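ok so i was messing around last nite and threw this chain in just to see what happens. nothing serious, just curious
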Amino acid sequence: MKGIAQEFKEFLLRGNVIDLAVAVVIGAAFGAVVTALVEDLITPLIAAIGGQPDFSGIGFTINKSRFAVGSFLNALISFLIIAAVIFFFIVKPVNLLIERARRQPPADPTEKACPYCLNNVPLAATRCGFCTSDLGEAPAA
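result:
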């Protein structure tokens, strides 16, 4: 029988746990970079164009309850900006790189279009299976 300490050691040294720990650390560092990009570059740029970068003062009171609509707007705008930055600067470039790496020449066609009904039929077909039109003789194999 294994002791608890031995089982715990095996659990910690499994590849999945280490991979997850590395991913969390890298994710936190990446989050800090994206947050700095948004707060230090993109939000001031929007403020220069639009005039007001902070909406936290916007709100209203009903029966002594304060509704901070501006804080919600700040959070919503920050979320949208961060999502756009991640999409345009991370997701799109990575997808383009993956697409370039996976490009393969197109496979030889196995079907042709019937000239009468435009449905796809096998290359060797002499009659369309959809409209029964005569397609001529099959090519020699």
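not much to say yet. Strands lie at 60-62, 65-67, 111-113, 120-122.
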